[in-house]
Amino acid sequence: KRMKNNFTLRILLYSLLAGIYSCDYVSNPVEPTTNNNGESCISSAFPATTPYRKVLVEDYTGHKCPNCPQAAVSVKKLEDTFHDSVICIAVHADFFAKPDSKFPEDFRTDAGEKYAVTFGFSGYPNGLVNRKDYPSNAVKAHTSWLSEVSTILRTAPEADVQMLSDYNSTDSNVCVNVQTKLLSNPSLTTSYNLCLMLVQDSIVAPQVDGTNTIASYLHRHVLRDNINGIWGDSVLTNAKKDEARLKKYKFKLQGTYKNVSCKPKNCYLVAFLYDNSNYRILQAEEIKIIK
Q: Is 118 exposed, middle or buried (0-12, 13-18, 19+ CB in 10 A)?
């Protein structure tokens, strides 16, 4: 009897240890989750949803770029046309984004500067649409974004990305759970990364518009930081179709990024899954930090 009890105890212990060390794999995604340091973080379950295609548009811009407000108009048209099927980010980078005495705000990020070089930006306003057609034709004129997005949205979704987040206003900590899964069996040679970004909306600051300078221009969708590095984290290693994987993050939302105030009510998170071989984005998602 004692041997039987010891055997049962060992089985329970092994099961417990397996649960602790399997934080990046979700065998049952409706179970409550905790963050990587073991503290209670997010207990909500991922809802049962039907995935649909979403497209990420990156508008490369700068506050001293005279033609860039035209691209902001194109972004607004995308949002009015495709609603939540399109996710937009304004990436301030390169010469036109450098601050000076008249434009003191610094919206640049390490990631944005790296992306501008990697994807070969030489003029603004231009952007990326799901980072497709790299390396030959990744940079797209803002006048083509509508047709590019429309074409992609006519195709079936390749992956699902879901996010849950929790913001603690007392210590400004943000917990994020990101679940990814492929909707078809992947190639054995394909690897994927998950990128998580902090984006802030509605920042009032100067902007050149043609020959004029607008002192109180409303900067929207501004990339403020990359939460998990410039190129993100490896995910879905050896994953099969419909096999959900979970990544968990916790970070402190700063009061300012560089010299620009960060207001939590205007912030949201953007996550996207991409193919490492060509940077092409399979799926994207966004969630507000304060619901």
A: middle
- Do 195 and 272 form a contact (C-beta atoms < 8 A)? yes
- Cα–Cα distance for residue pair 248/40, rounded to 1 Å: 12
Q: For 164-206, what is each residue's pLDDT tens digit?
A: 999 999 999 999 999 999 999 888 788 999 999 999 999 999 9
Q: Please state, in angstroms and rounded to a whole number, the distance separating the CA atoms of residues 93 and 275.
A: 24
This prediction has a pTM of 0.86
Question: pLDDT digits over 231-255, tens only?
Answer: 999 999 999 999 999 999 999 999 9
Environment class of residue 153 by beta-carbon count within 10 Å: exposed (0-12), middle (13-18) or buried (19+)? middle
| Cβ atoms of 55 and 75 closer than 8 Å | no
- Which of 161, 223, 150 has the alpha carbon at shortest distance from 192? 161
DSSP annotation of 122 reads -
> How big, in percent rounded to 5, are the helix, strand and coil portions of the chain?
20, 35, 40
